[in-house]
Specification:
By secondary structure, the protein is mostly loops. It has 2 helices and no strands. It starts with 12 loop residues before the first helix and ends in a 67-residue tail after the last helix.
Length: 107
């Protein structure tokens, strides 16, 4: 872990490892901030050093990764929902209301 790392709240790597690092988006971290956290704090995030980088690999593996990709995909969207919510809003309204209200209203 990078001993110089401090999050936007000024917190070190060890603090962030108390929960799954990929869930920090639920409290306002952007995808870029989560990526920086995982890259700079792999031990706290329970990620092997070097498994997550800022750049995609030139030699992809045959098996899926255990975490989300932070690079845009070329796949077209599907009508099948994902198992977990995304950290970004959808580009269009949904057909049904959400089960729970958001913490911060949109404008």
């Amino acid at each position: 872990d990078d001993p110089e790392y401090k999050s936007k709240q000024g917190l070190p790597c060890a603090f962030h490892g108390s929960v799954d690092c990929y869930t920090w988006g639920d409290v306002g971290y952007t995808d870029e901030e989560i990526l920086e956290l995982v890259v700079r704090c792999p031990c706290a995030c329970n990620v092997r050093c070097g498994d997550v980088t800022y750049d995609p690999t030139l030699n992809p593996t045959a098996f899926p990764t255990y975490g989300p990709s932070y690079h845009p995909t070329t796949a077209t969207p599907t009508n099948v929902p994902t198992a977990y919510p995304t950290h970004q809003p959808s580009p269009a309204p949904t057909r049904r209301p959400t089960k729970y209200p958001t913490q911060q209203p949109t404008t």
